[in-house]
Amino acid sequence: MSVMHLVLGYPNDSCCTAVAARFEALGLSVCRLDAAFAEPARFSLDIDATGRATATLALAEDRVEQVESVLVRSSGAIDPAGWDAADHAYMQAETQAAALAWLAALDCPVVNGANAELWYRPRKPLLYWRSLLNACGIRVPDILITSNAADLQRFRAKLEAAGVPGAICRSLARHEDWLVGLDDWTGVAALQRYAPVCLAEPHATVTLLCIVGNTVIWDAEPLPAASALSEKLVQFARCANLGFVEIAVAEVRTGLAVVHVDPVPMLEHFSSAASIRIVDALTDLLAGQAHERRKEMVS
Q1: Domain 126-137+205-263: CATH architecture, name and number where available
Q2: Each residue of 78-107: pLDDT tens digit?
Q3: CA atoms within 13 A on the CB side of 49
């Protein structure tokens, strides 16, 4: 049995490429898979009568790997070429469900895996994270979801009284936002006659950061309130079971707030210097957690 780290991602992902290269530079065995259950990998999940589950991975017919850690960047995708659309959708769903169960059964460190809600739809609107952010003492922008015209006008008046002339119209179903300027309120009111609208107060220029384990990596020079906020953000990531998460913060009327949370960080969003620190921290997290697990098993 050989020992290896597993990177489960998708083609052309710079993060997967960089982490795999970093493992190799450290002399550690690593396997990168761009699709769950893709050849040459052979996955097994053995569940006995008592409910005890054992997950194994083989890369050759007669060799089972000891998986030291897993970085999950994607649930994997089946190439639709040659498939009937309905059959492809069915097989994709079966594959994703099996991969989720396999990851949940592993007894090694898994970064950003085994959460069914995020597994099937990783990029959630800020509203999804709002309660947990607030519970960790983190500010978020004011948000209104309404089909009531009077409430819409009160929200607009509150912002204008604070010197904020517009708002942000947010989609609840897609990862999209639209700026509402002074001339756009009539259109928002017209839309509201057919469906509730989601409005948020605007924010200033965003600053990106990435949380890797207990490490906060700012893309630019940390903001004045960075120290106190960093501790709260690490707490949030821990409560959300996100060992690796991208966050955007910005000033709103009442101070510094989180305006975006992404459980699938993209290195392309960060400077070269920050990207290097992120990859180093991520590799250290995976290798370090695996090392601590081995010590616990020996003791």
Answers
A1: 2-Layer Sandwich (3.30)
A2: 888 889 999 999 998 898 888 899 999 998
A3: 0
Strand partners, 216: 211
- Among 71, 177, 161, 88, which residue's Cα sits nearest to residue 127? 177
| Beta carbons of 115 and 241 less than 8 angstroms apart | yes
Class at the top of the CATH hierarchy for domain 2-121: alpha beta
- The domain limits of the chain are 2-121, 126-137+205-263, 143-200
CA 249 – CA 258 distance, rounded (Å): 4
Going by the DSSP 8-state scheme, the letter that residue 268 receives in this structure is G
Q: Is the peptide bond before 40 cis (omega within 30 degrees of 0)?
A: yes
Report the DSSP beta bridge partners of residue 67. 4
As given in the structure block, the two tokens for residue 272 are 């070269």
CA distance 238 to 229: 14
Q: Indicate the pTM of the whole model.
A: 0.89
Matching fold, domains 2-121 and 126-137+205-263: no
Tokens 């004045």, located at residue: 224
Residue-wise pLDDT tens digits, 15-33: 999 999 999 999 999 988 8
